Amino acid sequence: MIHRVYSVGRPSGWSKEAGDEYCKRISRFAKVESHFLKEGPMVEKEMLEKSQGWWSICLDPSGVGLSTEDWRKEWEKLERGGRTGLAWMIGGTDGFSEDFRKSCDSVRSLGPQTLSHDLARVVLVEQIYRLESWRAGHPYHRK
Question: Which end of the chain is more exposed for a tag (fewer CB within 10 A), N or C?
Fold first, then answer.
């Protein structure tokens, strides 16, 4: 799987360090790219344009929450269907518009709570790392 993580705003401090560390770990199993976009009126359009041809996943508290095991099943189903690139979208201060959410292939949640975009990126790349290492044959401690 190839992962592109689009995030509004640029992380700094602890969140940059944590996110970068997980991206480094992911690179042992899969390709991951981080793209940071400036918040503004055109950011949603820019995300959609940059993610064309990729399976686009909007992260939003209103999205469907899946267990780690269900994410794995979903990724494997996408791969069987020829989808190997996932574009993850993390919004800014005001999240995403309804039109944007409808434009994405799926809307997923990292949980019902509201997370800062910096923390959402760390949680997302940790989950990508967990899943890609599991898919590569490393044991999953919940099994």
Answer: C
